[in-house]
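Memo to structure team: turn this sequence into structure tokens by end of day. - J.P.
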Amino acid sequence: MPQTVVTSDPDVARQFYERMNGEVIYKLIGENTNFFFPKFEFPSGIPTLPCRESDKDHFDQIRFAPHLFQQRVVKKFDVRATIVGKEIFAASIHSQSGQSKLDWRLDYGVPMMKLQLPQSVSKACISMMQQFKLNYAAFDFCVDAEDRYYFLELNCGGQYIWLEERTQLPISRQLALLFAGEAEPIVPPGVHIQ
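Reply from structure team:
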């Protein structure tokens, strides 16, 4: 995982920015936080954005809502791994060939291809699924030039139809099998989750 800090303290954000030599991205945590930092940012919404030197003028606004600051990884490509029960459906997203190299969600037109995750990454994903008692989740990673995987996010409600349409990964079929009791779940039916 890249070095990360979640804060609403402007001083913590400033220290992190300096420690990372300005190689920082940020993610706004809530829908309304995009109105605060930085001013007049486009597009609106909450994409991953570079933290620029000029943004430091707006760091005091961080106090209005939590922000996630993260070490910027120079990416070769991104990965979305959708897990249904114990089945993993992964795809490479070649974000660096598109118009939004930092956040591929702003350019779905980039090449996307089926991908076999390294065994260590697959094991870590299944372990997280077990720990959080999930039968469905979408994992996001980025991969650097040395083929190191950086974990970015686990979304237990991540969308997948766009990925299925582009790659022909049978995610919907696996969900149907899981709901019908014909695929192996991580959390068996009847298990009470507290």
